[in-house]
Structure to design on (482 residues):
C-alpha cells in the first residue's frame, strides 16, 4: 500500500504552515456552518481568507469543489497505487485496497468528514457534485480491472460491474459510519463490506474463472440424498475431463 | 412486466397531439443541435416553443433536465413495477427486469437516444445531471432489494452492491450500443450483461445464500490429484454434518 498523501493534505492546516488553499477551505467551512452553503458566496470566502477571487478559482473550479478539497489528491494517489500494483496479484483485492485510500482520507479527520456529510445531505448541488467525485473513483478502479481482464471476452463488463460493487460496498460502510456521527471502527466495517466483493469476485471465488493449471480444483455439487456411487462417478468423470 | 408508459411519453410528440411539454423538448433539441447546449438559453427555448418562461420551469427544473425528459416517468414506472412484484419471486431477477424498463425507453427512440448521448458526452453539466438520474434509479432498485433482504444481517450491504452491479451491467451494454450509433440488438446485449448479475447473485447462484431445506446440496471442492478415498471421506462428512 502506498503512502496516503491525502491524509497529510487533509490535515495540512493543522499540522504545518497553512497554505492559501488550506486558508480558503477553512474560511469556506466557517462560513458554511455560520450562514449555510447557499447563503455563502465565493466573494465572502475570499474576503474572509484575505485572498483575491482569482486565487480561489486557481484551486477550485466552483464553490461546490471547495467542500471536497482532498479528492483530487486522493484520486491521484489511487491512480499511482494501481499503476504500481503487482501484475500477478488479485486485481479485485487491488481495487479494494485502492478504495481503502478513500476511506483513510475520511477516517483521518472524522469531525470534518461528519460535518461535510451533514452539509452534503442538505444541499442538492453538493450531493450531485459528490456523485461526480464518486464516479471518477469508480472509473479509475474500472480502468485497472479492464486492463487486467483484457484477455477475457467479458472483461469490460466484468470490470464495470466489479468496480461498481467495490464503490457500493465501500460507501455502504462509510455512509453508515458518517450517519452515526463517526462512531465505531469504520476500517473494520469497510473491510467486512469489501470482503463480500472479494468473496464474490476475487481469485478465490467460484465465479472468478481464474486459477492456474497446477491449482486446478474439482467442484462436485450434489443434492443431499444422492447415492455415494453417483457422487464418486461424478468426481471421476470430472477428474478425467 | 408492466406497461412501459415511458415509451409512449417519449414518442408522444410523434404519435399524438404534441403537448406543451413535447413542444419544449422539441424546441430545446433543435436549438441544442443548431447552436450547442451552452449557447442556448431557456429564453431561446421558450421563444421558439411559443410559450412563457414559467411554463418551462413548470415542467423542468433546469435546462439540463430538458435533455432527459422521460426519466421522471420511467422512474415512476420502475417504482410501480417493483411495488407489484411477486413477493415469492427472485428479487435479483425483479430488479433486472426493472432496469430493462430504462433500456426500453432508450431503445424506443434510437436516433434521439444516440443524439442525446453525443450531446451529454460534450457537456460536463449534462454528464453530472445524468449521474444524478442514474443514482435515482440505483436507489430505487436498492430500496426494493433492501425490503426483500430485510431478514438478512448483511441485507443492506447486499442490496446496495447488487443494485450497483445491475446498474453497471445495464449501462455497460446500453453505452456500448449508444457509442456504436445504435447498431445491433441492444436488448440482447443488456440481457447478456444482466445475466452476469443473475448468475452471481440470483436465487440459483452459489453465493445467494438461498435454497430451501429439501433442495439442500452438498458442495465438495478438491484439488485435482486428491485421492478418491479422501473425496469420498469429505462428501460423507458433509452429508453427516
Amino acid at each position: 500500500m502506498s503512502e496516503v498523501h491525502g491524509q497529510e493534505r487533509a490535515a495540512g492546516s493543522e499540522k504545518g504552515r497553512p497554505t492559501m488553499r488550506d486558508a480558503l477551505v477553512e474560511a469556506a467551512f466557517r462560513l458554511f456552518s455560520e450562514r449555510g452553503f447557499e447563503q455563502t458566496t465565493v466573494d465572502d470566502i475570499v474576503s474572509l481568507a484575505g485572498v483575491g477571487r482569482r486565487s480561489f478559482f486557481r484551486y477550485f473550479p466552483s464553490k461546490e469543489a471547495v467542500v471536497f478539497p482532498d479528492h483530487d489528491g486522493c484520486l491521484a494517489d489511487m491512480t499511482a497505487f494501481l499503476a504500481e500494483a503487482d501484475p500477478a496479484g488479485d486485481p479485485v483485492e487491488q481495487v479494494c485496497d485502492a478504495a481503502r485510500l478513500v476511506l483513510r482520507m475520511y477516517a483521518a479527520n472524522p469531525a470534518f468528514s461528519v460535518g461535510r456529510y451533514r452539509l452534503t445531505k442538505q444541499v442538492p448541488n453538493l450531493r450531485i457534485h459528490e456523485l461526480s467525485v464518486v464516479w471518477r473513483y469508480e472509473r479509475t478502479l474500472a480502468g485497472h480491472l479492464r486492463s487486467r481482464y483484457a484477455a477475457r471476452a467479458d472483461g469490460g463488463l466484468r470490470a464495470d460491474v466489479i468496480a461498481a460493487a467495490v464503490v457500493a460496498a465501500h460507501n455502504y460502510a462509510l455512509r453508515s459510519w458518517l450517519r452515526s456521527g463517526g462512531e465505531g471502527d469504520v476500517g473494520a466495517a469497510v473491510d467486512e463490506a469489501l470482503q463480500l466483493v472479494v468473496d464474490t469476485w476475487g481469485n478465490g471465488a467460484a465465479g472468478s474463472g481464474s486459477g492456474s493449471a497446477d491449482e486446478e480444483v474439482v467442484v462436485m455439487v450434489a443434492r443431499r440424498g444422492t447415492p455415494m456411487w453417483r457422487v464418486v462417478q461424478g468426481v471421476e468423470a470430472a477428474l478425467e475431463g
